[in-house]
Amino acid sequence: TDLSVRPCQCGYQVCLWCLHHIREQLNGKCPACRTPYEEKKFVIEEVDPEEATRVIRERAEARREREKREKMEKLERERAQAAAAS
User: Which of 30, 47, 73, 75 could form a disulfide with 8 if both were Cys (CB 3.0 to 4.6 A apart)?
Assistant: First the structure.
């Protein structure tokens, strides 16, 4: 469902949780172009299941890469601290 909702005409896409949070708790404006969100202007598209699967796979891969990079950075910091302490 996140892929099917286009809340702003600029095309910036946010997940439904973030959209709700922005509208209810923040300023109600698109983070990209600062246009106020208007529900009547939301575009809801039908999503191709293959496209959704591809996007989910890409996001998972990006998350794994980010976690791997963060783990390596943490190890490097710990090694540098250990070297500095000795």
Answer: 30
Tokens of 19: 């959209």
State the pLDDT at residue 1: 59
The rounded mean pLDDT for the chain is 86
Tell me what percent of the chain is helix, strand and coil, each rounded to the nearest 5: 60, 5, 30
Distance CA 81, CA 22 (A): 40
Whether the per-residue pLDDT at 41 is higher than 90: the answer is no
Do 47 and 13 form a contact (C-beta atoms < 8 A)? Answer: no
Q: d(Cα 23, Cα 37) in Å, to the nearest integer? A: 7
Any bridge partners for residue 1, and if so which?
Answer: none
Given this model, what pLDDT does residue 3 score?
A: 63
